[in-house]
Description:
Layout: H1 4-18, H2 20-27, H3 37-51, E1 56-60, H4 67-81, E2 87-90, H5 94-109, H6 120-123, E3 138-139, E4 148-151, E5 162-168, H7 174-177, H8 180-197, E6 198-208, H9 216-226, E7 231-235, H10 253-263, H11 265-273, H12 277-281, E8 288-290, E9 299-305, E10 314-322, E11 325-334, H13 338-351, E12 356-360, H14 365-379, E13 386-390, H15 396-410, E14 411-414, H16 417-420, H17 422-430, H18 441-456
Parallel strand pairs: 1-6, 1-7, 2-4, 2-5, 5-6, 8-14, 9-12, 11-14, 12-13
Antiparallel strand pairs: 3-4, 9-10, 10-11
Amino acid sequence: MVDLVTIKRYAKIELARREFFGFCQALAPDFYKDSRQYLIDLCNEMQDFYESDDDILIVNEPPRHGKSRTASMFAQWVFGQNPQEKVMTGSYNETLSTTFSKAVRNGISTVKADPEVIVYSDIFPQVQIKRGDGAMNLWSLEGGYNSYLATSPTGTATGFGASILIIDDLIKSALEANNAEVLEKHWDWFTNTMLSRLEEGGKIIIIMTRWATGDLAGRALEHFAEEKKKVRHLTMKALQDDGTMLCEEILSRESYDMKVRAMGEDIASANYQQIPIDIKGKLYSSFKTYTELPKDFSGIYSYCDTADQGDDYLCNIIWGVYQKEAYVLDVMYTKQPMEITEPAVAQALFDFQVNKERIESNSGGRAFARNVKRILEQDLKSNRTDVSWFHQSKNKIARIISNSTWVMNHVYFPINWRDRWPEYYKAMTSYQREGKNAHDDAPDATTGVAETMYLLNGG
């Protein structure tokens, strides 16, 4: 006769096969407790995503709440559902990718020592690591080939095709979150390396603490929405809106308040509340917009910052002046070469009947200005616009910061400026007061608008 304990044990095993949270609870009952509702929600969301036809799941969760652990458990459970899956994981560096790989591999190959303790082989006895497959970051299951690969932005993914792609926390510090070049490298690695390995119909899971609007999670949310992919987004805050904690056992309110005091509110908000650090650290907190233009401008002006280096943008802004306020009419923000931008700027000056154009003469700006003037006079037969150039000797960052308040209070953009000039909009709304910015051409030229207005107003 089978005793009640044995019956319960078999019930747990059967539940673990069917439900991901049941699987986690069977193997790690001390952590995956029924009282930790957020873990139930996380596991159910991951299982539902796996069983759906959705393309990508993004999970933002505070540190030390079991993100990486649950991701490694998920890889194990998935192999139990389908041993033919090919799972590829990406972590911050090779050390962490190896740790992740060990967690998955060791979980599957755990040897049963206590008859009362449930191990992986009790749940999925048919899933085994292939004998002699000794590589720690690339291994196979019995009956499969290259079932699992763990890599990082400094690692390799050559020759591996994945049906499931799992990215686990790529940013480890506020310094990285504030570095636009690091964030861009993460995105390049994800799109050029990881996505190229994803098989048709494959699924993507990104699990990370939010740091910046331009981090991998933020870029992926924007990109896949534009691509009309089916995106799921699960966000968990350590401190809930009602004042309770996500899990008092893991992080109490007292500990949370202490961490906020120690690390600063901006970093704590990113780490624990999923509020990107650059939202608090960005230079421009708001912008004025208009739906209708004033009827009579006192003048139409333009400011141009030509591209200093090959990777820089040319930024030309045209605006009308009304009661000492600047109403932006047109923005040209491009990396195109001079032979294209010179006639394009001249045409814009002609079309908007600009009274005066000021062009920074640094790094080829003087030749650019002369050519724009020549095109206006010779090709467009216009002498309406006074084109002048000058050498900008003041410190660029100091200029941008010192004029930022005026820009926010007195420069008006069209209500749809995000759609009309998306790259310019992104550059303006993401520029950081501190930290390394990939480009400053948009804030630089917009600062030129403020400085020009200052001169017009008798400054």
